[in-house]
Fold:
Amino acid sequence: MSKVLIAGNWKMNGLTSDAAREATALAAGVAGVPHVHLMIAPPTSLIHPLRINLFERGIADRVAIGGQDCHANVNGAHTGDVSAEMIVDLGGSYVIVGHSERRTDHGEGDATVKAKAEAALRAGLVAVVCVGETEAERRGGETLDVLARQVSGSLPDGATVTNTVIAYEPVWAIGTGLTPSTDDIVEAHAGIRETAAGQIDDVANLRILYGGSVKPGNAAELLALDGVDGALVGGASLKAADFLAIAAAAPARN
Ligand code: PGA
Structure:
């Protein structure tokens, strides 16, 4: 089995009827992508329904489930939040932390993201730690510095290549149809890996995903790039056929 991970982030989309429909569509196509790991992070409301639907169709072992965020604490007076332990309780095995929409909409900085990633590890979840530069930072030539700062500030203490994944998501590429040049993606992933080497052993085996406007039409080119170990897919993960087409485009990588 390769280390490639194709992860879907449904964001704030989907009702229980969608979970059932998507599970059926995934069940129809998942046999065609035996060479990659699959994970879907639905809204919290759908973690359990999607998990049940995957079980009923016999593919719960092929499609892991994740949360899109978690609180740093186990429980307490945090209205509207969900803990990493609660995600585990619902059948989740991953959680995304530090997505740019959390960093921007909820003012989450690196210290908060790190605390959330540590909560993920505490609960036994794999933390998918997102980093990425804004358009202004890219134009200002600050991309590698921003990524280094975010990686060193957001990676959890105790991170290993099995409990932590990094997703490189340029903020300006999310939901816009824009992607960096292939050279820029390779450079960013190499920079991220170099920074992570200070905190994670065996960093060659760390999974670093690319995210931002990944679609069936560009997946083969993006996923073939040096240092790209999978994708974090937003919009195109909402339809199982597109999500599976992206997975099918991934090379098998050890
Ligand atoms: P997108 O989102 O694929 O819709 O650009 C990616 C993400 O935000 O994870």
About this structure: The chain has one domain: 4-15+35-45+63-248. Residues 9, 169, 174-175, 211-214, 232-236 surround 2-phosphoglycolic acid (CB under 6 Å). The chain has a mean pLDDT of 97.
